[in-house]
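Two records follow; treat each independently.
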Amino acid sequence: MVDETTVADPVVELGSALRGAMDGVATAIRDSNEALRTLIDERLPARPADGTTWSTSGATQTSLHRLNPAPEAEPQRDTALLPGGERAARLSVYDRFDAMKWTRGDFEIAGIIYGATREAPNVSRIEPPEDFQRAWRHHLFETGQPLMVREGNRIRAMDTAETGYGLELIGAQYESELWAAARGQDPLLASIRSIPMTAPTTYIPTDGALPEMLLVAENTASNSSVYTTSKTASSRATLTAKKFTIQSMWSGELEQDSIIQFTPFIREKLQQSLAYFLPSAMYNGDTTNAATGNINLDDADPADTKHYLAFDGIRHYWLVDATGQGKDMAGAIDLTEILRARGKLMVMGDDVDDDTNNANWGAAVDDLMLVTDWTTYLSLQNNASFATVDKYGPGAAVLTGELGRIFGIRCFAPAYASKTEADGKAAEVESSNTKGQITLFNRRGFIRGERAGLSTYFARVQGRDQFLLELYTRQAFTRHGTGVAAGIYNITV
């Protein structure tokens, strides 16, 4: 016999139970939403009137929507943190280069070096490290300073694909930095006026004698004679550019960090070289290139590459060109002779009737400079007239440790001003140069011309595993007057 009893399907029973539970949850949610909407409607009238419209969005929504928000004040912003702001720039690149006090010129010089490894064939490229590339882009493109690009230089587009390429072709900021540092280190270089030269040889007009002012009668007749004319004398000085160079060899064993480490060293050495050799050429210059006679090498033939062969300088004027402007001291310095040397800077005549030359290069004390060798400088510093407070006041050497001025004239002793022999010229054997020397001149009586600024190149020398650093400049120097300098030589020190 078959049992026909009906058995309930468990799946159907589970489904029914779930539907019942969900219906209960839905009912609870509806009741909750209704209660929440009632509560909101009761509280809205009590909300402060601030110009904002509030509402509910229906029974199925459990949040408020702000339909018309009142304007809110923007938070105070620090503009320095915005793009281009000073603090933003500093925060974005403060790294080891800031710690090393790198300048924009440093990045350009380093770029020249890195770029040299890219141009040389069969040479492994030295890739700039990422932090260098970021700092380089910041200093050359993000600081707001205009790029100083030489005329005729190629410029590559700088983007992510070109990062690192063209580093050596961008900018010439290092030039102005080197010049500024060199002028800061040498008073003579900083004081001599400089003009740009548009040609290798440039003529500078200079003043001559004054046109004479004449006493004449009034012309009243129609046929009166013309007045006597006065000539206005004029002259000119010639600036001829001469080429100077620095050639330095560096080991080929270069890598990322070694370049970064010695770049400031390179810049410092270039600054020191400019601050020494260029003013030395202006001060010691003598174009005499023979076995004897040059004031810097009186008993030998100087090498053709010596910097002092470029032009006749300040010391040459009173030692050779106008020997009457010099004084053979033949003993210890007599301070009165410094005043006499200043008197020689006046080229005005003592005959009012005949001489109309108006030049007095010794009148303005602020334009005068006194250059001496170091031993003579120390001797002057120890002189009783300048050493003690009772004689020289608060500027006395015993207080300042230096001799800044003599009779109001600025005094300094650069390394290129050396002792000489008794005739005022230097011998080849250093031990023969035992006599002190003083040069007094008016800085406005001389002028420097600049035909070309600084050009720097860095390239690999094939077959030597070396790199060559090259620096070039074209400079000129001349005087444009008579009586612009005087000197004292053969000083016992």
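The next record belongs to a different protein.
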Amino acid sequence: MLDIYTICQRLIIHEGLRLQPYFCSKKKLTIGVGRCLDTNPLTSEEEKTVGDWRHGITKCSAMYLLRNDIKKVYKELKKELSFFIDLDSERQYALIDMAFNLGILGVLRFKKMLKAMEKGDFKTASKECLSSKYAKDVGTRAIRIANTIETGIFRL
């Protein structure tokens, strides 16, 4: 896996960093780096650390939540995709980014893409990624992720 700092920086590029609570494009209450509080509420430990998020959080708190979210997504991907751990770190990142955006269940719907990745057919996997509603919804982000899947190199 890539270092946590690199993953955080890339997710900030894709998600943005907002210290005040806001409603995302899907009308879900969100804070920090894409932390959807409706579907992923703070744990009691996170509440203790973050404090009264309703009036905003610090950048430090946002990064704490982001690191927790990355660890959770990584663990879910390892559990659900037997081949995940055998992927190079950049392709692992691509799936982490997708799972961060779509949730693990959203990623698991990409059956053809995942089957191609499992076989090492990254060109087909990239095409499957781009021929999706996800790609239409997130635009440039999906192009970056699909290129990372195909080439094993992340480029802005």
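Discussion point: The mean pLDDT is 95. How would you locate this feature using only the token line?
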